[in-house]
Amino acid sequence: MLPGYQAWPEEFAEFYRQEGCWEGITFGEMLRQRADVYGNRTAIISGGEQLTYAELDTRVNRLAAGLYAKGIRKYDRVIVQLPNMPAFVEVIFALFRLGALPVFALPLHRKSEIEYFARFSEAVAYLIPDQDGGFDYRKLAAEVQAEVPSLRHIIVAGEAGAFTKLEDLYIDPVQLKDDQPVSSDVAFLQLSGGSTGLSKMIPRTHDDYIYSLRRSVEVCGLSPESVYLAVLPAAHNYPLSSPGILGTLYAGGTVVLSRGSSPDEAFPLMKEHQVTITALVPPLALIWLNAAAARGTKLTSLKVLQVGGAKFSAEVAGRVRPVLGCTLQQVFGMAEGLVNYTRLDDPEHIIINTQGKPMSPYDEVKIVDDEDIEVELGQSGHLLTRGPYTIRGYYKAEEHNARSFTTDGFYRTGDIASLTPEGYLIVEGRAKDQINRGGDKVAAEEVENHLLAHPGVHDAALVSMPDEYLGERSCAFIVPSGETLAAAEIKSYLRSRGLASYKIPDRVEFVQSFPKTGVGKVSKKALREMLTMKQPI
Ligand code: J2J
């Protein structure tokens, strides 16, 4: 077993197997089975490229052989930072076949994040595009490799320069001699949104993740006729698995990969490929609704529009059916496991006003107070969960796990929620110290640590501020150690430290001291209140 992985207790594992949740197949086997059944059907469409299931399976086998020839073996960690392109799908399935573990980085991650992922996971390889969105990933990779000696291979989709060219790794398949992965093995490491200094890694097994795909496919009504448009970054758990790219492949459907998410890019793709389902975060849904309303566009093929990752306001939710003519599905999920969906045939008031109910009958959810005592139905409290696809611990994080999980294995989601009598969840707020910037999660402590490294900063606190468009934005409060600093200087300092752009504070405020709570801690509540006061601070 992978060291640092916390498995389910045997009696739970036995139960989930017995109940048929865990099918006992790996991702490698899943793709082979789909290629057997759906061989000539289209699996992936991207730009001018199309791949059938049979072609995808063959390319994955060839790539697995090439990666093997490079020395990549079972349990090796490989950072995958690829945009929405066919190589993303081929690379992860090739790694799954070898039993090597993709570590899913987002395209916006920069040196600070990637260096940490590489160091913490002791990654042996790093997969990147040559450039994307005007950013040269090869430069970033060279910087990271100089700092992290374990990183033996930089593999580039595109112009590789001095690095290994991904296309050269598609070679004749060989019979792999090593240990083959089994379904109970960890398949990959997903990243947590995080509330601590550095984001935690989430070990997901073939068994548990494939179960989450199966349930997602059932709940979302996917079939071989479904066409899923991926506009959110493929590596994120939501477009990857709810039901996302992998769920669509599980169902034998077609995945259309889009680099951009704007209506100008997405609407023509929807029309051309007769897309039936896609997934958005709330700010994007608002942009799409406004564009469709202004242009009088009807997305006629679209049956389901999923919105999740952050709270979708009921007011905007109510516009989806009238404007787009499709069913809204609210999705409240987390990379740690639990995914809630409104059902396609739910009454409109449930679809608009709730964040759905757990997708599996084996999901256990509890709403508790600060003492872990269950509250009365309808009251809000901390959401705890346990189930066949919710992890029992983060990767190599024993100390943190003791705080993030109860002794009987419930994951503390950090979300404040309430349950309706019908068993639907309403997200009311958050107990974790995180800013949800329109679906992009920012751990306050991580940004604060970077701010504290600045010699002119005596103390720092990052808080959320309400925002009409993103839901929330971030504001950094700073107590300077000497002379007053400029907000622009603080922001450029954070950028120079290689922080992803969405973590750069939207606003910076300088104060003499922080308001404190009764026990002398910085009161973020008071700081947030200062932001909503009429007068400038
Ligand atoms: C309010 N908050 C939400 C929602 C997530 C499907 C969908 C989303 C994610 C995801 C995912 C929310 N309303 N509808 O992994 O498979 C906030 C909560 C939650 C955190 C998880 C999936 N949907 N959230 O967003 O790991 O605070 O996963 O705990 O990025 O996002 O973030 P993440």
TrEMBL record:
Domain named AMP-dependent synthetase/ligase: residues: 32-395
Family annotation (SUPFAM superfamilies): Acetyl-CoA synthetase-like
Stored CDD domains: 23DHB-AMP_lg (cd05920)
Keywords: Ligase
Record has Metal-binding as a keyword: no
Biological or metabolic pathway of the protein: Siderophore biosynthesis
Domain AMP-binding enzyme C-terminal: 446-521
InterPro entries: AMP-bd_C, AMP-bd_C_sf, AMP-binding_CS, AMP-dep_synth/lig_dom, ATP-dep_AMP-bd_enzyme, DHB_AMP_lig
Protein name: (2,3-dihydroxybenzoyl)adenylate synthase
Organism for this UniProt entry: Paenibacillus illinoisensis
Organism lineage: Bacteria, Bacillati, Bacillota, Bacilli, Bacillales
